[in-house]
Each structure stands twice: as structure tokens, then as C-alpha cells.
Amino acid sequence: MPSISDTITAIKGLRSGLVGGVAASHRLVPLTPFGRNPGELRGLVYVPVDLPAGAPLVVVLHGCTQTAEAYDLGSGWSTLADRYGFAVLYPEQQRRKNPNLCFNWFVPEDTRRGGGEAESIREMVVAAVERYGLDASRVFVTGLSAGGAMTSVMLATHPEVFAAGAIIAGLPYGTASTIPEALERMRGHGHERARLSDHVRAASSHKAAWPTVSVWHGTADRTVDASNAAMIIEQWRGVHGINTSPATTRVAGQVHRSWRDEAGRLVLEEYVIAGLGHGTPVATSGDEAYGLAGPHMLDAGISSTYRIAATWGIVPAKAVTREAVSSQRPGTSEAQQEPAATNAFDPSQIIHDALRTAGLMR
């Protein structure tokens, strides 16, 4: 267990992009070259030592004002990759494209198949799979806020690339194309419910099985209204052709709803995190504790990172003890295993967060 002073240092490091006074970039390395890159994004990867051929790939999309390195530190994806054997790809926004480092989830040029940021992310996936000998049938994508909305973009425009995706505090695909529309949708206004699924179907000529979708949202999110989670669920229920009611349970005390297709395959799930503001749910204790709590990385007593990976089948459904995992993977680095203390959501940032998420202010 880290000391109080170590915890304070870790959280300060998370805010500044430093850990223990050194850059957090030692976990991620640049992916270059990877294609035409029409969206002018940067690509970074984490590949565990001695990763066997045919391992899965997880694509992670950070939120506004965040970097890939900071989001990896907060979410713990690369630490999870060390323990269970998969690669992680982080597309990263550049300030010249968006001053707040938001993915341009509502800009038509960046959200269509074959163009802009969506094409850059696809090119990164192709390059990573080929370069590291990964399993092209087990590529997954997740993201927070603007990254969550961009996850919706990738699942709609390139459903053949992704086996599944997880949208955290994000928005449905295709409902905004201007800044005013983006702000309205973030508030939960103006969604054309009757056309939600049509937006996805029109984004590609896909005829095969659609990706599985996981949706995470806090009930106290005042930056991206929680009604957007309901719109994402409605969008993908229509795509998957599901008319049945969900099975409802509780996981780590939180409401979990799941929908299955006629064959019994889980195709859609939702986690409703009571009282959570705008951010990625993390756990700071227990066997599912990965990453660090900090700005927009919120201690909710449930690890979205672990639970999402478990839904995808790339980690056990129930976490084994850390000692057992360490003994299974003796070469694994333990540098980031200990979680830090929580950092509560700051309501005074609500207005600024909303504007940053839309890319309107620094």
C-alpha cells in the first residue's frame, strides 16, 4: 500500500503527465509509419515483452484535455495488458487539429468511412496488427467522452474491423455535424430517435455480424447528459434487431443490463454508475484495481477497464489474485500495480468541461 505522500505525488504526476518526476511515456512507444494519416493523429502502442503471436488488440481513445499517456496511466490498460497478454493502441489527438485535444467526433470529414480521423485510426489498427502479428478478429475499441463518441464513430464506420466496443460517457453516432449541434446533443437535446440506427447502417455497407457494444455512464454526469447512454442503447438495439427486455443484475453494486440476440449471444450491455460524474470509472482497491484515480478518472468502486476486458473475453470473468497472475507471467513489470487514492469529481468544472468536450475552449 503506498504512503499518503506517495499517493499525493502520484496524483500530482497524473495531472502533469509525470510519474515519480519522470515522463509517463515509458509505457507507450510511437507507431510509425502507419499510413496516409488524413486525420493527422499520432499513434502510440504498448506491446508486452514476449507477447505471443495472435494476441488481441485494444484501441483506446482518450478524452478532451488528456494525452494517451495520461489516459493509460489513469485507466491501467497497459498494466492489464501486461498481466493478461494483449497489445494496446492509443490514437492521440494533436493540438493543431483541436486545441483541447478532443477527437473531432462531430466533424463530417473526420467521421466518415475512409476519411479524416476515422481513417487514421483504421490505418493504425492495420499497421499494428501486421507489425506485431496480432489477431485481426480480436480487435476492440473503447474511449471516454469525445473518445467515447469517436468509439461510436469507429463502430459505425468500420464494423468489420472491431469485434466489440465500449463507450464511456459518450454519444451515439451521426447525431451532430456542427458545434451548436454537438453542444445540444451533449445536453441530451435534439436526438432524432427514429433515425438513430439508420445513421449506423448508412455509415458502411456492412452485412455481417455487428460488433458487441458496452455502454458506461454516470447518473451525475453534467458534461455529457446520461440520456445519451439511452440513445446509444437505442441506436444499437435497432442495429442488432433486439426487441426483448434486458436482463438486469448488479455488478459491484452498480446496475448492469444486458441484451442477447436470438442465438443467446451477448450483443449489448449497459452499466449505470450511480452518482458518478463525467469520467472513466476506476477501482482503487481489490483484484480489479487498475490505474489511478485523478481528473476524469473517477473512483467508483468498479473498474471499467477490467469489466470491459472481461466482457470481451480477454481477461477472466472474475479477477484472480494479483499474486496468482504475477506467478503466471513472471516477467511482468509491477511498476504501476498499486492504485492511488481517489480524486473526487469537481462540480465547479462542469461548464468548462462541457466546452472542452466540444472543443470550444482551452
Outline the structure in words.
With 362 residues, this protein is an alpha/beta fold. It contains eleven helices and 14 strands. Helix content is 31%, strand content 18%. Strand 11 and strand 12 form a beta hairpin. The chain is globular. Residues 1-25 and 326-358 have low confidence and may be disordered.
| Shape category | globular
Quick one: how many beta strands? Answer: 14
Question: What is the radius of gyration computed over CA atoms, rounded to a whole number of angstroms?
Answer: 19 Å
Domain module tally = 1
Helix-strand pattern: HEEEEEHHEHEHEHHEHEEEEEHHH
Low-confidence stretches: 1-25, 326-358
CATH homologous superfamily identity: Alpha/Beta hydrolase fold, catalytic domain
> What is the CATH first-level class name?
Alpha Beta
CATH architecture: 3-Layer(aba) Sandwich
Give a short synopsis of this structure.
It is built from eleven helices and 14 strands.
Kindly list the characteristics that best describe this protein.
alpha/beta; Rossmann fold; ten-stranded mixed sheet; 18% strand; disordered N terminus; two-stranded antiparallel sheet; 362 residues
